[in-house]
Amino acid sequence: MTTADRRLTEPARAPVAPRPTERGPDRAGRGGRRTARSGRRRRRAVALLYLLPALLPYTLFAVLPLLHTAYLSFFDWDGVTLPSFVGLDNYRRIGTDPQLRAAAWHAGALILFFSVLPICVGLVAAAIVSRRAGRRGTGLVRTVLFLPQVIPLVAVGILWRWVYAEDGILNQGLRAVGLGGFADAWLGSFTWALPAVGLIGTWVVSGLCMVLFLSGTQRIDQEIYEAARMDGAGPVREFWSITVPLLRPEFAVALSITVIAALSSFDLIYITTGGGPGNSTVVPGILIYRLAFGGGAVGVASALAIVLTAVISVAVLVINRLSREAP
C-alpha cells in the first residue's frame, strides 16, 4: 500500500489546540492587579477632590500656623527685634520654670471639674431622662441641661462673675438661709478661685455629656433590659450591668472632648479671674498669652504651645486606644 493510499484509509485526526504558555495566567493576574490599583487611585483622587474645600482652609489656618509655631519655638524673640536661634533652650525652660509647672498642675486639676464630674453628672442625667422618655417635661429638662453648651463661654464667664461676686446671687442666698459666715469673694480667694472656675466648667460640659450618653442609650436593644427584668434586675442593676458597659464608645468621645476642654481652657479663666488671684488659676493657655503678648517671650510661648498640643494629642490617643482594648 502506497503512502497516498495509507493516508486515504486512516481516520482524520482532530486538530490539536495550542497549549497556553505558562506565563499567560500570570500576565492576566498582573493585568487585573493593575486595573484594581488604577481603580483605587481613581477613587482616591475623587475623594481628595471632595476633601479639597475643607483641606485648604484647614491647612492654611491650622497646619501652617502650627508649623510656624514649632519654628518659632527654637528662637528667642520678643516679637519686634530680630530673633536669635537658641535650639532647645525654650523647651528646657519649660521643664525647670516653677510657674510653668504650677500651670500644668492647675490644668490637671481642672480635668476633675471639666471631665470627671461632667461625665458622672451627664451619665446619671441621661439614665433618668431615658427612663422618663415620652413623659411630659422630659424634653424641657433635656433642653435646659444642654443650654449652657450653646452659650458662648465669654457670656458664661460674665454671668458667673455676677453669681460669684461679693453681693452676687450665691452670697445673697447663703445670707438668706443664715449661712452668711460662708459667704466669700469666691473668684478672689486663693483657696476657692480654682474650684469656683472648675464648677463653671462642670455646669457647661455636663449637658454635652448627657446628650452623648442619651444617643448611646437609644442604640441599646430594649430586649436586653427586658431579659434583665425577667431575671429580677432592678433599675440600679440595669444601669451598672447593661447601660454603663454598652456606653463605652460614648465614654471615649466624652472623655476626649472634656479632657481637651480642660487642658486647653483659656477664655473662661481669662474672663473670670485672668489667672489670679496671683497665679492661683494660671493654666497653660493663660501663660502662653502672658508670655507672648505681655512678657515678650514669643519663643517660650511657642514652645509651651507645642508641648501643650503634644500632651493633648497623646492624651486623646491613649483614651481612644484604651477604649478599643477594654473588654
Topology:
Elements: H1 3-9, H2 24-72, E1 75-76, E2 84-85, H3 89-96, H4 98-131, H5 138-150, H6 153-164, H7 169-176, H8 193-218, H9 222-230, H10 235-246, H11 248-263, H12 267-272, H13 284-293, H14 298-325
Helix pairs in contact: 2-14, 3-14, 4-8, 4-11, 5-8, 8-11, 11-14, 13-14
Indicate the structural class: mainly alpha
Characterize the main sheet. Answer: 2 strands, antiparallel
Unreliable residue runs: none
Order of helices and strands: HHEEHHHHHHHHHHHH
Strands of the widest sheet, in order across it, are 1-2
- The overall pLDDT average reads 85
* Count of individual beta strands: 2
Briefly, what is this?
With 327 residues, the chain is mainly α.
Give an overview of the whole structure.
- With 327 residues, this protein is mainly α.
- Helices cover 73% and strands 1% of the residues.
- It has helices at 3-9, 24-72, 89-96, 98-131, 138-150, 153-164, 169-176, 193-218, 222-230, 235-246, 248-263, 267-272, 284-293, 298-325; strands at 75-76, 84-85.
- It has a two-stranded antiparallel sheet.
- A hairpin with a 7-residue loop joins β1 (75-76) and β2 (84-85).
- α3 (89-96) packs across α14 (298-325), α4 runs antiparallel to α11 (248-263) and α5 crosses α8.
- The longest helix is centred in the N-terminal third of the chain and has 49 residues, at 24-72.
- The mean pLDDT is 85.
